Amino acid sequence: MTSLKNDVFLRALQRQRTPYTPVWMMRQAGRYLPEYRETRKKAGSFMDLCKNTDLATEVTLQPLDRFPLDAAILFSDILTIPDAMGLGLYFEEGEGPKFERTLREESDIRKLAVPDIGSELRYVTDAVSQIRRALDGRVPLIGFSGSPWTLATYMVEGRGGTDFLTIKQMAYARPDLLHHILSVTAQAVTAYLNAQIAAGAQAVMIFDSWGGALSHHAYQEFSLQYMQQIVSGLTKESEGRVVPSIVFTKGGGLWLESQAETGADALGLDWTISLGEARKRVGSKVALQGNMDPAILLSTPEAVEKEVARILADYGIGNGHVFNLGHGITQFTPHENAEAMIKAVHAISSKYHL
Predict the structure, then answer these.
(1) First to last CA, the chain
(2) CA distances from 340 to 38, 113, 159, 268, 271 (A)
(3) d(CA 174, CA 180)
(4) Looking at residue 105, what DSSP letter applies?
(5) Dist CA 180 CA 231 (whole Å)
(6) Tell me: the pLDDT tens digits for 45-99?
(7) Which amino acids are annotated catalytic?
């Protein structure tokens, strides 16, 4: 593989000295970019786009060709694993992902098995390899997966954005069944992320999008412990360098200290917590990634730059910060505002890296 021309992102995740704060955006390849919308139209459907290696490579690189980002992230979806488990993922326009089959009957749950990553998810690892070649060392490539709890919510509820009553009922009435789903899924996620690393991913991220819906004790039992299992099973080094891992629980600011004990190199933060306060709480155990509210990008370049300056000042002097949004960029974001954010991070942050 070609040597990296820009490794600032990887060094920041390991809390090493960097000349500035690196920046990338969750969902940076997406509908806010006109070129993405054109490619998506060409693909025919979202999953056809994910499964077409050439087109997945194309959209992964689109934001890098437009903005001076410090990392690329694989274009895929967190629900590829449940789909590979045979649950029938599909997307309805304006309604998001749904599954044809759900895991509610004990007989179905007991049949759940780890999919063959090499065949069922080959399209993902092929995309990782091709994207790495296309990047040619410009910036590192991030691989990712959903967390077991987040994937389980879709597998049980059949869709996202629900009140989670069905899966919570299972958690309290039949925790043995939910633990079976989570255990099998954790094994699958570990194998999936390691396959991405073997294919060329240089950092990996676990998205726990719905962890914040859990109570304090339920979070420890049904979400955090399985992410910890995954982190402990990840490949830690590839191509002669460390492969850092990031754990991100949306709405998870209450549990930062516990997250810092998972063994992950970095924690993602949403916008509901002070970055400076989070830094005090976790100390030097982990790097921090975040945490601008994506809605700010709907305002003006001046407002965006002001908020960038505030967040960088909140973290303060020192290394170990990756600038990002607190969740994914929205489809309604003017790309000029995204560019203003990225350029402001690079321009302002250097004074914090003495």
Answers:
(1) 32
(2) 23, 46, 35, 22, 19
(3) 10
(4) S
(5) 19
(6) 899 999 999 999 999 999 999 999 999 999 999 999 999 999 988 887 766 788 9
(7) 27, 31, 40, 77, 154
Alpha-carbon gap, residue 87 to 274, rounded angstroms:
39
Amino acid at 160: G
pLDDT in tens, 1-40: 578 999 999 999 999 999 999 999 999 999 999 999 999 9
Which of 23, 314, 54 minimizes the C-alpha distance to 306?
A: 314
Yes or no: say if 143 and 203 are a contact pair by the CB < 8 Å rule. yes
Task: Report the alpha-carbon distance of residue 55 to residue 43 in Å, rounded.
Answer: 7
Contact (CB, 8 A) for 70 and 173? no
pTM above 0.90, yes or no: yes
Does position 257 have pLDDT exceeding 90, yes or no? yes
Query: What is the chain's Cα-based Rg?
Result: 19
User: CA-CA distance, 39 to 56, in Å (whole number)?
Assistant: 9
Angstrom CA distances, 167 to 99, 181, 226, 337, stand at 15, 11, 16, 38
Q: DSSP assignment of 265-328, as one string?
A: SEEE--TTS-HHHHHHHHTTSSEEEEEE-GGGGGS-HHHHHHHHHHHHHHH-SSS-EEEEESSP
Pairing of strands 141-146, 72-73: parallel
Residue 171 burial (10 A CB sphere; 0-12, 13-18, 19+): buried
DSSP state of 92: E
Cα–Cα distance, 342 to 269 (Å, whole number): 18
CA max distance for the chain: 59
What are the φ and ψ backbone dihedral angles of 110, each rounded to 5 degrees? -70, -20
Amino acid identity, residue 211?
G
